[in-house]
Design goal:
It is built from 14 helices and two strands; from the N terminus they run H-H-H-E-H-H-H-E-H-H-H-H-H-H-H-H. The chain is mainly alpha-helical. The chain has one domain. The protein has a two-stranded antiparallel ribbon with strand order 1-2. Helix 3 runs antiparallel to helix 7, helix 9 packs across helix 10 and helix 12 packs across helix 13. The longest helix is centred in the N-terminal third of the chain and has 26 residues.
């Protein structure tokens, strides 16, 4: 077997495992079609820390902690832990902030988009079309020379800050001091979660597998367009396939646009929400899952992206931008359009024509 074929087999197997894990987390207590959602879980964590006071979505999610720590341990084991950063931090923060606005308009990240489709939610299929469109627009900027410039080597202490913060968050989750917030049972998605240790273990596995395979939904579509390379996309196809099979076995599939868990059926805003996510993340160089994994590898720029996602989620809920099962808010619609404009301006400012 050639090296290329071996890599494809590995990423397919990893995707199949991740899809099963994500679906079984729903059985264990996570919301339906949300065994894993990077955006939603970061939003819940922001609420758990009191950065927003939306009571239905407050809980420090162990899955996020596990992804970062799993990637960190795997990177150390493979001698791939490499602290680096300094590439347009404020621009990255802004792009991540905008990406979270899109995620909370759609009610999910690209990972949850795949899981929603595997659960029969056809609204996610509409979002998927928007996601592809956003990445294609981002590719246009890449072809025009878009760049956030080079990164620089940094001290080891810089690279370990986020993994250490994740350990502290887990300690806070277990200790549950008065200043940590938890959604009350029955109050909303934040109150629906699997066992703490099971969630952490699932995150560790996903983080390690994603680090090993470089799994990235944005990168998968981008690479198909730019290089005709489908390896990364195969991983998410495998997640969809295994999640769909397990959902069918468990009777979790509900094909249609209506009565979908934590979703709404306004096609335009599902499309535009993920269009914004695809566009912003293409310029960032990776989806939210990939950014978490890279932060575990010591990438300080990705840690800044994670911070942008966290504060973006808090802002969305504090100022009424986030959608709900009832649909998008007027403020959220304005924010999505404004964010698309901001991302386009960032793309223009940071692009240069290639020399003849």
């Amino acid at each position: 077997m050639t090296s290329a074929k071996k890599d494809k087999v590995i990423i397919i197997v990893a995707g199949l495992i991740i899809g099963v894990i994500a679906t079984l987390l729903v059985v264990a207590g996570n919301p339906k079609n949300m065994g894993f959602c990077i955006a939603c879980f970061i939003r819940d964590t922001a609420g758990g820390l009191g950065l927003h006071r939306a009571a239905p979505v407050q809980y420090i999610r162990p899955e996020i902690i596990g992804i970062v720590i799993g990637a960190f341990v795997c990177a150390l084991a493979k001698k791939e832990f490499s602290p680096r950063g300094g590439s347009a931090p404020m621009t990255r923060f802004t792009l991540a902030f905008c990406a979270m606005i899109g995620c909370l308009m759609f009610l999910g990240c690209p990972f949850r988009m795949v899981l929603r489709m595997a659960g029969g939610d056809l609204n996610a299929l509409v979002g998927f079309v928007g996601f592809i469109a956003g990445i294609l627009v981002g590719v246009v900027f890449l072809k025009k020379g878009f760049s956030l410039k080079r990164t620089y080597k940094m001290n080891t202490s810089e690279g370990v800050i986020l993994p250490v913060v994740e350990v502290v968050l887990f300690a806070l989750l277990l200790a549950a001091p008065a200043f940590i917030f938890f959604s009350e049972e029955g109050a909303g998605p934040g109150a629906m979660h699997a066992n703490v240790w099971l969630s952490l273990f699932a995150g560790l596995i996903v983080g390690a597998l994603a680090q090993r395979t470089r799994l990235c939904m944005v990168g998968g579509i981008r690479d198909v367009v730019l290089f005709k390379e489908s390896r990364l996309l195969l991983g998410f196809a495998a997640i969809f396939a295994s999640a769909l099979i397990v959902n069918l076995i468990l009777g979790f599939v509900n094909f249609g646009f209506t009565e979908q868990p934590v979703a709404y059926n306004d096609g335009l805003w599902n499309f535009l929400g993920l269009f914004l996510v695809g566009f912003a993340c293409c310029l960032l160089g990776g989806c939210p899952l990939r950014q978490l994994v890279m932060s575990g590898e010591g990438n300080v720029d990705s840690a800044v992206v994670v911070l942008g996602l966290l504060l973006g989620a808090a802002f969305c809920h504090n100022f009424g931008l986030a959608s709900s099962g009832e649909g998008p808010t007027p403020a959220g619609k304005i924010a999505v359009i404004a964010a698309i404009v901001v991302v386009a301006l960032i793309g223009l400012v940071n692009s240069r024509k290639k020399e003849a």
